[in-house]
Structures are given as C-alpha cells and as structure tokens.
C-alpha cells in the first residue's frame, strides 16, 4: 500500500498536477478512524469512474503518511478475470487491499450476491463472523489465483471462496479490520462522456449501506482529469499513462454515519424487513452479509436496494454540481437508457461516450 500510494502521489504531482477540494474534511474523518478499536462504523467512498487507473491515482491526493496506515486505508473491488488471473497478480492486488470480484457478463459467479460482496459488507461491520465456508484446499500452482491465509486451520478458517473451488484470505475475519474503509465505483465500468455524465449505478453499493451492523460514513467523490491520463482513444503505446495532465478530486460532505437521515431511514426499513422475514420462519438469524432468497429477490428488498442506489447517485451528483457542472439529463441515470445501447459493452456508444470494462 505504501509503495503504490507513494508512487501515485509522485506521479500525480510531478509529471502531472492534481488539485483536491474538500480534502481537509476527509483527512479529519480518516484521523478520527486511526484508532481501530475506537471506530464506531465503517467508511464508504463512492465516485464516478473515468479511467482504468482511477484507483490508485485518486489517492495521490493523500499525504504520504496516510499511505503508511494499511488498517486505515481503502479496500476496493477488482475484476477477477483481469487482476486475479494467477498467483502473482492475486498476491499483488490482495496486498493492495483489493477484493476479487466477478463481473456477471464475464462469469456466472457475478452479480450483487456474490461472496465478495458479503466480505465487503463484513469489512464495514464488527467481527467476529461465522466462517462462510469450510476450508477449501488451496491450489498451489502459479497459474492459479488461489491464496492461502497463514493463520487458517482446519478448525478455524480465515479464507473464503468466490466460485466454490478457489480460495482467498477473508480480510473481515480480523479484528484489526473492523469498520474498515471500502471504495466503490458503482457504474461498474469506465465511462468517459463528453458532458461528464455518469452511467446508472449498480445495486452492489446498496448492500454496502443497508447491511452492515452500523450505518457507514458515506463520502461522495467527483473525479476529473484521470481520463486524460488514460483516455480510451489514446494512441500506442496504450499501456503508458500520459503526463502533463491536470487532474482534480472533489470530496463531498459525509452523507451517512450519525447524520445521514436518508440512509438511516432506508436502513430502518431494511432492518424491519429482515426481522419480518426471520419471524416468518423463512430463515434463522442470518449472519451479517448473508441473505436468503426473500432478501435477495423479494419485491420489498429489490425496491429498497433501488431506492438506496438512487440516493447514492444523487449524493455524487451533488458533488458534481458543487464542482460547477450543469445538471445532467435525468434519463442517463436509468437502466432503461443504457439498454438502448443493445448488446454493445465496450467502445464508442450512441451518446458519444466511451465505455471500458474494468
């Protein structure tokens, strides 16, 4: 974390420039969370996604000392089929606090109810948790992405599986990671639009807000300029980040935590729904991050996740508005708008935007 964070800061302030707005308030929030045992809730940061290297470039705004505190640094979600292809990549990104995430159009193991989302919910909560699976043998081949947890044993497993056959360390099993910080790009893919609009947000972010044992702090973020560092129409060599670019990060106010009235109301409705499902005998008391079919696919559960996701997107739009951009067309936040693109998943879209899976 320290090496990549330090290099990101150097890259964003020497060959490029990076300005930050609202950073002091965000650093104050991180400072309050420095004592792990004193934390009362998790932290979610959520932003637009304009470049394949938004993370780690965003965190170039953090002073060097903050990169030396891995227990007070972000966890993020990374595409299984891109950054968890083999043991070397798995090791690098796991040490970088990235969770292996399946994309539904690339894997049958994807979607908002995959095991990695359960782990993210637990990172935002306080352990202990009942292990989600029995110990699974770790494939030692260098071609396998499997990683062993050095403290796991047949009677106490600190690993989890994303497919039923692979194995990864379960970070939420450790008390030192209670009420952690998770960053998420709810658009689910890079979206470079000439008018700086966003795609619709996916439901996974709603799980991270509704299901933890305490309402997380929620800080919306707006990014600009990273798309010029790695534009989707860049000329060869495409793998080389561009220099001489100006980037910026806007941090919004905390809309969650103790003062997040909208999200407290949504969480209250979620808790009542969970209690009702448990009273009906549809399930015994569920562990944090575990859902039965009613809580996955039931009409009330689906509606709550939709409402929560809309509110998160509104929070990011609020920061976009503070940055001085005009309000976007409300239709661009609807799933139906993007369905009109047909089956095209990457490249140039009908609205002039460029999209890239990440």
What does this structure look like?
- A seven-stranded mixed β-sheet has the order 1-10-9-2-7-3-4, sandwiched between helices.
- The relative contact order is 0.17.
- It is globular and about 55 Å long.
- The longest helix is centred in the C-terminal third of the chain and has 24 residues, at 299-322.
- With 358 residues, it is α/β, with parallel strands linked by helices.
- 31% of the residues lie in helices and 15% in strands.
- A hairpin with a 5-residue loop joins β11 and β12.
- It has helices spanning 2-13, 23-32, 54-57, 80-83, 87-95, 115-123, 204-210, 226-229, 261-279, 293-297, 299-322, 335-339, and strands at residues 17-21, 43-47, 74-79, 98-101, 159-160, 168-169, 181-184, 189-192, 217-224, 246-251, 347-348, 354-357.
The number of E-state strands comes to 12
Helical percentage: 25-40%
- Compute the CA-based radius of gyration: 20 Å
Overall geometry comes to globular
The major β-sheet equals:
7 strands, mixed
Averaged pLDDT: 91
Output the number of helix runs: 12
Tell me the strand order in the biggest sheet. 1-10-9-2-7-3-4
The share of residues in extended strands comes to 5-15%
């Amino acid at each position: 974390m320290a090496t990549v964070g330090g290099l990101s800061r150097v890259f964003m302030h020497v060959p490029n420039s990076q300005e930050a707005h609202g950073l002091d308030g965000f650093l104050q929030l991180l400072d309050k969370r420095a004592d792990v045992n004193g934390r009362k809730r998790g932290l979610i940061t959520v932003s637009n996604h304009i470049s394949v290297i938004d993370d780690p470039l965003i965190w170039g705004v953090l002073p060097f000392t903050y990169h030396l505190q891995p227990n007070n640094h972000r966890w993020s979600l990374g595409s299984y089929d891109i950054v968890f292809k083999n043991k070397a990549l798995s090791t690098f990104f796991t040490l970088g606090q990235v969770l292996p995430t399946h994309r539904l159009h690339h894997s049958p193991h994807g979607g908002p109810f995959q095991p990695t989302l359960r782990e993210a919910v637990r990172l935002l909560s306080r352990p202990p948790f009942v292990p989600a699976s029995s110990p699974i043998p770790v494939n030692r081949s260098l071609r396998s992405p499997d990683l062993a947890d050095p403290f796991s044993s047949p009677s106490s497993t600190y690993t989890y599986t994303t497919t039923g056959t692979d194995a990864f360390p379960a970070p939420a099993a450790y008390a030192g990671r209670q009420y952690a910080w998770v960053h998420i790009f709810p658009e689910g893919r890079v979206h470079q639009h000439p008018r700086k609009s966003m795609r619709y947000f996916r439901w996974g972010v709603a799980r991270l807000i509704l299901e933890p044992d305490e309402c997380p702090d929620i800080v919306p973020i707006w990014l600009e300029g990273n798309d010029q560092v790695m534009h989707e129409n860049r000329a060869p060599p495409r793998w080389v980040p561009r220099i001489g670019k100006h980037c910026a990060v806007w941090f919004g106010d905390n809309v969650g935590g103790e003062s997040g009235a909208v999200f407290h109301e949504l969480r209250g409705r979620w808790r009542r729904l969970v209690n009702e499902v448990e009273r009906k005998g549809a399930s015994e008391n569920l562990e944090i991050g575990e859902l039965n079919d009613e809580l996955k696919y039931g009409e009330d559960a689906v509606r709550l996740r939709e409402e929560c996701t809309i509110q998160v997107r509104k929070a990011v739009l609020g920061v976009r508005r503070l940055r001085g951009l005009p309000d976007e067309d409300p239709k661009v936040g609807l799933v139906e708008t993007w369905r009109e693109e047909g089956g095209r998943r990457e490249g140039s879209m009908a609205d002039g935007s460029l999209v890239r899976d990440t």
